[in-house]
Amino acid sequence: MKYNYFKRDISWLSFNYRVLLEAADRELPLYERINFISIYSSNLEEFYKVRVADHKAIASGIVKDDDESVDAAVRLLQEISNEVNRQLEDRVRIYEHEILPELQKNNIIFYQSRNVEPFHRQFVRDFFREEIFPFLQPVPVSKDKVVSFLRDNRLYLAVRVFRRDAPVDSPDHVQYFVMKTPYSKVPRFIELPKHEGNHYLMFIEDIIKSNLDIIFPGYVVDCSYCIKISRDADILIDDNDSQTDIVEKIKKKVKKRKIGAVSRFVYDRHIPGDFLDFLVDAFGINRHELVPGDKHLNLEDLRALPNPNKAAGWSEKPVPMKLACLDSKESVFRYVARKDLMIHYPYHSFEHFIHFLYEAVHDPMTKEIMVTQYRVAENSVVINTLVAAARNGKAVTVFVELKARFDEENNLATAEMMKASGINIIYSIPGLKVHAKVALVLRRNNKGKPARSYAYISTGNFNEKTAGMYADIGLFTADRVIVDDLHRLFLTLQGKPGPEFKRLLVARFNLIPQLENLIRNEIVLAGEGKGGRIILKMNALQDPAMIDRLYDASERGVEIDLIVRGICCLIPGQPYSKNIRVTRIVDSFLEHARVWCFGNGGNPKVFLGSPDWMKRNLYRRIEAVVPVLDPDLRREITDLLDIQLSDNRKACFVDDKLRNIFKKDPSRPAVRAQYTFYEYLRSLRL
User: Fold this and answer.
1) Residue 250 pLDDT greater than 70, yes or no
2) Helix extents (H) in 257-405
3) Are 178 and 156 a contacting pair, CB within 8 Å?
4) Is the per-residue pLDDT at 403 higher than 70?
5) Helical pair 70-94 and 8-23, crossing angle rounded to 10 deg
6) Helix axes 408-420, 243-256, angle to 10 degrees
7) Among 19-23, 47-51, 60-64, 628-632, where is mean pLDDT lowest?
């Protein structure tokens, strides 16, 4: 039988639409709903910068791709455009017909045009003259000579004016200008004076629009509309580049990111056709790059919308808790020497990992610390602790992945700072990304012989900022086999060949064969009537080869539940996938953990680690997965999966049309997995 798959990017758009649906949830506090519009818009911006830009390069023949023809890229771009336009209609509806009226009910009037109440007109005039006007620079635009370069993701105001002193039939009568809005100097949202118990907010571009007569004396202002450009932000590095070449090329290419090829030209959908035609010709925009937008663009900025009425704010989030087993008298080292330890972020405090590093810094038996870094927090406590370790005489090695998209500059700057502090830095491996999230503490006794050492394997980055927003899991262990495996992995990253891993599953080495064996075992159990069972939780499922194995397992009677937040190319509801269900959860925290559970006839085999089941993760990256050996911790994981599969508040089934079908069932007690699991973890502390 021929198997079918969802298209990767159309599946991703289904996920992003699920994010938008949170903005429509009337049970959420108002500013949380507004924040989901911001997240949706930010996600879409990155999607155009990277994925759409890639397809445009293929469609234009600039880039050749073995997996996508020119015609296929053209068809996919049209499909993407159709779906995005459909979603943007819903975003306009949710924002204008649900969010804005709710703000007004909470005594927050958010002006959506340049027209303001009489009692605010003088304030707006004065504010413009004093705070905005000095930063404006209107630039003339003509079809013959473009003197303005539109920067990536910057908001511009396109203005059409008529010269008073030029005859109507003169070519100089109509003139066009663009102005970059200066909200790096002035906030995007301006709070106006309170009036009769109401709070008032205004977009900076609306304040500019209401004062165009000051900017253009001697002209009649006809109209003005917001525009923006998204540019190709992908950085392509040759697989054969050396580490030195990679560093230098990334430095150069990051600087060029803001002037990359146009991937979309977004405009206020109310702009007159002839005005749009002029801009398209003047800036050399291709018609297929046009994306109609809202009156106000860059709605990702809504995350910074002022909240003058705190009653319309945010719900209480779970406060990160300390593990009871690690009280003030107990060290991480001593505890993990006796029993593996699991941390669930953001429900548990990231401080436990920091304390683990602190102990390594001050422990006289610790001789070496090895860590991978993929996305580094600014002013990172983790990095500062590693610097302290190096200054304390420890040998510290950090593998820094420079090719982490949009974090290249920060990672490079951090790496150079660590190197200057005496840390041994290993940069990106040519042709590979290192996506594993692992740390290793190697110890020796006073006679120089190996002592108990410690490994940490996580599903998320060593980043204290994201640890408060992403739902991830980390495992501490002193298991000697795992410690030795992890040491071999770090030696491999330093260029030593031929590792053999006994317990760790490592992409490009033993991960795929072991996954195939685990799936095959469930097929055998199902055939013997012993109930084949697989639960897979991840961010993305895209690799056709692994999807085929799941389809095959389903056909052979294995019951499969997939908890996939984002891309899922597996199609449920088909004859070959009748035993597969796909669940998607979007809530307060970003579901980021990768956890796999294989029933194994009632004695589950449980794994956690860094990879999604994407081609890039399974075949082109270094990823690390660890088996959960402790029975108590395995139960924690299986309980987490059960809770998430029981969610009937924020969970959706993804159907065979890529629709998000909410699991809400009024007849059952409400289960909101993230909050239910937090209470579950609290009960374990008691």
Assistant:
1) no
2) 273-282, 332-338, 351-362, 381-391
3) yes
4) no
5) 0
6) 130
7) 60-64
Domains in the chain, start-ordered, CATH in brackets?
A: 8-312 (3.30.1840.10), 332-500 (3.30.870.10), 511-685 (3.30.870.10)
Q: For residue 334, give every residue at least 6 positions away whose Cβ sits within 8 Å of its Cβ, in sequence order, or none.
A: none
Token pair 């980043």: residue: 463
Q: Which two tokens stand for residue 318?
A: 């779970």
Using a 10 angstrom Cβ sphere, with 0-12 exposed, 13-18 middle and 19 or more buried, the burial of residue 487 is: middle
Phi and psi for 589 in degrees, rounded to 5? Answer: -115, 150
- Run of H or E including 559: strand 559-564
138: how many CB neighbours lie within 10 A of its CB?
A: 17
Neighbours of 342 (CB within 10 A): 20
Which helix H or strand E contains 440, and what residues bound it?
strand 437-444
C-alpha to C-alpha distances, 583 to 299, 308, 570, 572, 658, nearest whole angstrom = 28, 37, 12, 10, 11
**What is the model's pTM?**
0.92
| Burial group, residue 526, by CB count within 10 angstroms (0-12, 13-18, 19+) | buried
Nearest to 83 by CA among 13, 185, 136, 133: 13
Q: Burial, 61: exposed, middle or buried (Cβ in 10 Å; 0-12, 13-18, 19+)?
A: exposed
139 DSSP β-pair partners:
178
Residues making up the chain, counted from first to last: 686
Kind of pairing between the strands at 533-538 and 189-195: unpaired
The model's pLDDT over 496-535, given as tens digits with 9 standing for 90+, comes to 877 899 999 999 999 999 999 999 999 999 999 999 999 9
- Token pair 């993990």: residue: 336
Please tell me the distance from the alpha carbon of residue 282 to that of residue 287, in angstroms, as a whole number: 13
Mean pLDDT score, 133-150: 84
The DSSP result for 2-36, as a single string, is ---B--HHHHHHHHHHHHHHHHT-TTS-HHHHHHH
Per-residue confidence (pLDDT) for residue 527, from 0 to 100: 97
- Of the residues 344, 348, 435, 592, only one is catalytic, namely 435
Has 435 been annotated as catalytic?
yes
Alpha helices, DSSP H only, in 580-630?
Answer: 615-619
Q: Is 290 left (phi over 0), alpha (psi -120 to 50) or beta?
A: beta
- How far is it, in rounded angstroms, from Cα 84 to Cα 12? 11
pLDDT tens-digit profile of 167-199? 777 777 899 999 999 978 899 999 999 999 999
Contacts of 72 (CB under 8 A, 6+ apart): none
The Cα–Cα gap between 659 and 579 comes to 18
Residue 431: both structure tokens together: 């042709």
**Distance (Å, whole) CA 645 – CA 7:** 25
Q: Are 371 and 387 in contact (CB under 8 A)?
A: no
